[in-house]
Structures are given as structure tokens and as C-alpha cells.
Amino acid sequence: MTDTPEAIHAARHGDPAARTAVARLPGTSPELLTYLAADKVASVRQAVAAHAHTPPAVARLLAADADAEVRRVLAGRIATLAPTLDPNARSRMMRLSAGTLALLVQDTAVEVRAAIAEVVRDMPDAPRELILQLARDTAMPVAEPVIRLSPLLTEADLLALIADPPAPATRRAVARRPALTENVSDAIAQTTDTSAVSALLANSSAAIREATLDRLVAGAGNQPSWQAALVRRAQLPPRAARALGEIVTDHLLGVLAARTDLPEGLADSLRGRVAAQLAAQDDAAEPGEDSLFAAAAAGDRDLLLLRLAEAAGVTEARVEAALALRSGRAIAGLCHSAGWSARLAAEVQIALGGLAPAEVVHPTAEGSWALGEAELQWQAELLEGLPA
Question: Is 309 a domain residue?
Fold first, then answer.
């Protein structure tokens, strides 16, 4: 591997763009990459961190780089080597790389650890110790991909995460894992974690015993999110369907009534209730925001999602795509397009968007929008490029 005179000159005397370009060249030698690893410009060091020919000793130094993006890029590359790394290997190079990965998986920046999790989340031959460490991370961008997708996590591992969750959302991540066993589903159902139970019920591939499902239906009277998941479950035993028909909230009646597997007589009864409900709505005045505030307080995500899509004139898929951005400004812009108040928008950001109070765009003391009209409209326009 030989560096061209032009590459050497650019690395030593070129501007940051030229030096970055050299660091990205597939044929750049380990020696020149070592030189560029000490560059003052972070973008150059990022390119070195991403390069396959960067020496392990240099990568170890970059693992302590002051720029988190350098460490994140390095973490993504080193993680691809995880199945081959052995801290006890004879090869010094392999030991160095294994040590670098060990440093990065303990990095204080969430995005660095998350870069590792994103790479190893579905590796069948990743080090099991690494997978367990990531699964027990307190930051969900790190833990969730591994919890949901790693084939190395056993039923015992999942039960341990449920019994002693490292973070409040750990159980919910377990509940979303494909093909959960009945034992794991039982363990989730026996907790007081309502959001995890809601995720479990929404997980169509989770195996849930009929007795467990009956118990959850019985407790769903004041849990709108459970009801929303239950009425959409692919397999709903007749006894559970009948019990659900007695407690389901009004906006879910139509969903339940549309099922083709309901017990005899239940479908007709539900359709009659739906027809009566529609007739009553026709006679009623246009509802205000009281019901939406109540839905937010109850955590009724399905109702809020439906009403926001209707009022903003977009599909539910686009609302979901906007929520996935986890941006208070984006959700506020959508609520503004729907004609909703700034106070309701703040509640929606928490109840529907799952944002922490510090991330929410709050209204002013007078209850008006803290964002200007132009900003709100711009946020709404940005969402037009999201999946419809």
C-alpha cells in the first residue's frame, strides 16, 4: 500500500476538506492515517476512525478523542469486528481492538454506545458478555435494539430484565421483542408496568396464555391503551372478546365490532351500539378540547393519534413518522395545523410523543404559542416530506 505524492502533500499541507478526503481514500496507508489521527479538525479524525486500515493502536487513542462523533464513528467500525475479538488472544492487534471496544461500550456518550448496539443487535456470534452489558444499559437507545433483536438473549435473560429492570422502559423493550414465550409474557403481565403490558398486548407475535389474557382484559377497564391493543389482537378467545365488549371505550367499539371472529350475537350487539353512537354524534355539537385533554391524561394514544390525523388532514402513518422524530417543535407544528391550542399541544407532546417535560414546547404563561407563526408553519411544512 503506497501513498501517492499528491495524497502525502494534501495530508500535510491541504485544507481540512483535502485532508479529510485523503483519510477517506481506501488506499491510504496506516502510516498516513496515523499522522492524520492527530489532526486538529474533527472531520479528519472521524474519517480516520472510520477507515479499515487505521492501526489498532491508533484506534485505541481515538477511543479517548474529545469529539463524541469521532468516538461514535469508531464504535460503529470496531463493533463490526466484535465476533472476532478476544481480549486474551495471542495477537496484540486483536487484544488492542478488544480493549478499544471495551472502552467504547463504557463511553459516557449515549450515541457512542448506541452505535455499538446498532451493529451487534442481531449478530448471532457477538460476544455474549457484550450483549448482556448492552441489554442492561440504562439508556434505551443502547439497550432496546439489543433487547428486541439479539438472538443471544435467553428466556432467563429476559426474565431477569423484567424482574430487575435497569431503566423504566426496559420492560417495555422486552415486551416488544418478537416471539415472546408464554413465560416471559406472564412475567410482564404480573408487573404493575402498564406501558409494558400495553406493548405486550400490541405484540402480535407474543404468546399469551388464555388465562393471562382474561386477567388483563379484566383489568383493562381504566386502561384505554390496553383496550386499543386487545381489540386488534389477531387471536382473541371468545370469553375475552365478550368481556372486552362490556368495557371497551366508545371510539374502539367500531374496531371491535369489525372483527370477524367474535362470538355469536356479540358482533350484532356491538354494531347496534356503534350505530347508536354515530346517531348521537350527529345530534351533538362539535366537541371541544375537553375530551382530548382527558384522552391525554388517560394515556389513550390511539384516540389522540386518530383525532390529530383527522384534524391536521394527514394520515396516521404521517403522524407516527412525526412522533418518531421525538421533536417537540415538530409535534407542536402538527398540533397547530390541527387547530389545537398550545396547552393541548404540550399535553400531546408528553402523552403521544413520549417526551420528557424538559423536551416539551410549553405554552406561554397566557396559554398562547411560545413559537412564532412562521416557525409553526415551517415545522408543519417539514413534515410533508415524511412517509404518508
Answer: yes
Q: What is the extent of the structural domain holding 379? A: 290-385
Contact assessment for residue 335 and residue 345, using Cβ atoms and an 8 Å cutoff: yes
The single-letter DSSP state of residue 69 is H
Number of domains in the chain: 1
pLDDT tens by residue, 255-310: 788 888 888 788 778 777 766 665 655 444 345 688 888 888 877 888 888 888 88
pTM here is: 0.72
Cite the beta strand spans of 7-85 per DSSP E.
none
184 is a domain residue: no
**Could you tell me if residue 342 is inside a domain?**
yes
With vertex at residue 56, the alpha carbon angle to CA 50 and CA 59, rounded to the nearest 5 degrees, is 50
Decide: 369 and 363 in contact? Cβ < 8 Å.
Answer: yes
Which of 180, 192, 191 is CA-nearest to residue 155?
180
CA distances from 330 to 235, 325, 341 (A): 36, 8, 15
Q: 52 in a domain, yes or no?
A: no
